[in-house]
Amino acid sequence: MVLFVLHQLIQRIPALSFPLLNNYLDPLLFMPILLHGVAWERSWLLKRKTKLKWYEIVLWTLVTMVLFEYILPKYDERFISDPVDVVMYTAGSILYDCFGRFKE
């Protein structure tokens, strides 16, 4: 989350531009942030620690891909579909599965 916020702040400074990071860091970080939020909400609602199962991670990843890479670009011209974003969503989910679930 800190990296995401830091990147957003750096993007607002016109003198600093990192095109590769500007294009692909947000999709990479989105899945770990989303999945942590889902796990936290579930733990809060159920009043006990719960971990996301692998199929839940896959389902959330697929929903994100369809929503942001198919549905939104189809109905809003401000959004574009980028196949590399699909790779970044997948990589972010793998990062969450490998490292993020230890903290839950």
Describe the structure.
With 104 residues, the chain is mainly α. The chain has one domain (23-103). It has four helices and no strands. It has helices at residues 2-11, 19-46, 54-75, 83-99. 14% of the residues are buried. This is Magnesium citrate secondary transporter.
Q: Give the overall shape, derived from the CA principal axes.
A: globular
- Averaged pLDDT: 86
Give the topology string: H per helix, E per strand. Answer: HHHH
Whole-number total of structural domains: 1
SS class: mainly alpha
Termini Cα gap: 15 Å
What is the CA-atom radius of gyration, in angstroms? 15 Å
Helical run tally: 4
Percent of residues in helices: over 70%
Q: How many DSSP E strands?
A: 0
Query: Main β-sheet: number of strands, strand sense, barrel status?
Result: none
Unreliable residue runs:
none
Estimate what percentage of residues fall within beta strands.
under 5%
Protein name: Magnesium citrate secondary transporter
Question: Which keywords apply here?
Answer:
single chain; 74% helix; Magnesium citrate secondary transporter
Summarize the entry for a quick read.
By secondary structure, the chain is mainly alpha-helical.
Structural topology:
Layout: H1 2-11, H2 19-46, H3 54-75, H4 83-99
Helix pairs in contact: 1-2, 2-4, 3-4
Protein name: Magnesium citrate secondary transporter
Organism: Haoranjiania flava
